[in-house]
Specification:
α3 packs antiparallel against α4 and α3 packs antiparallel against α7. About 80% of the residues lie in helices and about 0% in strands.
């Protein structure tokens, strides 16, 4: 393999990784726009819907991500990503054939198993392609895959459901991923490890528990992992349940909801995550690395009151208007967090460090976020009827505020590390 990476190759690899990340979020987040028709078709509760969209998916996705990341630190990352895309795309298409809750649950677990092998090696490849001073921006571009995935999933899924039903929607969004898997395998080149920093991986990849110990000993890494998990709790819960809330409580159609949210979360969120990465790199270069987490803390605080107005709105247009800002800022945490973990971790453990971060983020965020809202929706519905979903969603605001605290503390720890001799106590 050539040790030279051309600028064209660098950009093409990042572009393909964005498409991979987009595909994963199409297949993952389409459950949000299809949640209400699935609930009515299969006669399931909100708690069961939370299991489908949250914890059962996340347990397999997050747990298997760690051994796959260890494999990626030792073997070809591109091939693992290609296989993963093929598997989750096939499982998504097969969701259209599910006839009951258990069948759909097993297929969604299959999607989670497939997605487990994608993110950690993608992070590692991006870190090899882009130096630390450009890494947050590169991660922001990669992170826009979340928003493009939601845009496609909500827009296509919403209208296909209205025209042909939710089963067809799964097939339509799942099958193109198989072609993408082939393109990744045969057109993407594996970059040399450590290329962007002129490093060579002379040290063998460490054992899993060595990486865990390294993260635990670092106050910066502890706080950034905790913060990302808590903020993603609110983010994943909103992405899954806000479309259900608009359909159920405000009486909107899935096509209409999908169109509005594709614009707000897809386009607006992509702009937000990209600008967030650029602003984080700008502030970190001029004011210090502590601004990587502080930029996220400020954006999250801005979102808090608007989320409350969204959940308590009396008309659909008021809910959508209030949600515009949180939708734009909701994934801003992704790029600074991903970049900071790669910046703070030795070359030989970057895939596993990313996997550990994703494990915690996905168990708490993707797993418990949607499930908790579904559970509390069922609880509050006993006394508040359909408005129980409003109060289930409102529980996420407290968790978001908790995440802001950890982003602030992470910045404090980084600032202390920049002052010689200053301890980084928790």
């Amino acid at each position: 393999m050539s040790q030279e990476v051309t600028d064209r190759q660098r950009k093409y690899t990042l572009f393909m990784l964005v498409l991979v990340f987009t595909s994963s979020h199409v297949d993952r987040q389409i459950m949000g726009i299809l949640g209400q028709p699935i609930k009515e078709s299969l006669l399931i509760t909100d708690t069961q819907l939370g299991l489908l969209t949250g914890i059962m998916f996340a347990v397999f996705y997050a747990t298997l991500g760690m051994p796959m990341a260890m494999w990626a630190d030792r073997n070809n990352r591109r091939n693992l990503i290609s296989f993963s895309v093929f598997l989750w795309s096939l499982m998504t298409a097969l969701c259209g054939a599910a006839n009951n809750f258990m069948q759909l649950l097993l297929l969604r677990i299959g999607v989670g198993v497939g997605e487990a092998g994608s993110n950690p090696p993608s992070h590692s490849m991006i870190a090899d392609l882009y130096p630390p001073e450009k890494r947050s921006t590169a991660m922001a571009i990669f992170g826009t895959g979340i928003n493009w995935g939601i845009l496609i999933g909500f827009l296509v899924g919403g209208w296909i459901n209205e025209w042909y039903g939710w089963r067809t929607a799964f097939v339509v969004v799942g099958l193109p991923g198989i072609l993408l898997a082939i393109l990744v395998r045969y057109t993407v080149v594996e970059p040399p490890r450590g290329y962007s920093e002129a490093l060579k991986q002379d040290t063998p990849a460490p054992a899993f528990w060595e990486v865990v110990s390294f993260i635990w000993r670092s106050a910066v890494l502890r706080h950034i992992v905790a913060a990302g998990a808590l903020v993603s709790f609110a983010g994943y819960a909103s992405v899954i349940w806000v479309p259900i809330y608009l359909v159920r409580i405000h009486g909107m159609g899935t096509g209409e909801v999908g169109s509005y949210l594709a614009l707000l979360i897809g386009v607006g969120g992509a702009i937000g995550i990209y600008l967030g990465g650029r602003i984080a790199d700008f502030m970190a270069a001029r004011r210090g690395q502590q601004w990587l987490p502080w930029v996220v803390a400020v954006s999250s605080l801005i979102s808090l009151p608007m989320l409350y107005l969204t959940f308590m709105a009396t008309t659909p247009m008021r809910a959508i208007a209030a949600y515009a800002l949180p939708a734009m800022l909701g994934t801003l945490y992704v790029a600074p967090g991903f970049a900071l973990i790669q910046n703070s971790t030795p070359l030989e453990m970057r895939s596993v460090a990313a996997a550990i971060n994703l494990f915690i983020t996905n168990i708490i965020g993707l797993g418990l976020g949607p499930f908790t809202v579904g559970f509390f929706s069922d609880v509050f519905s006993q006394t508040h009827g359909e408005d129980g979903l409003r109060w289930g969603l409102a529980t996420t605001i407290v968790i978001l505020l908790w995440g802001v605290f950890h982003y602030w503390r992470c910045g404090v720890m980084i600032k202390r590390e920049q002052i010689k001799g200053m301890p980084t106590a928790p």
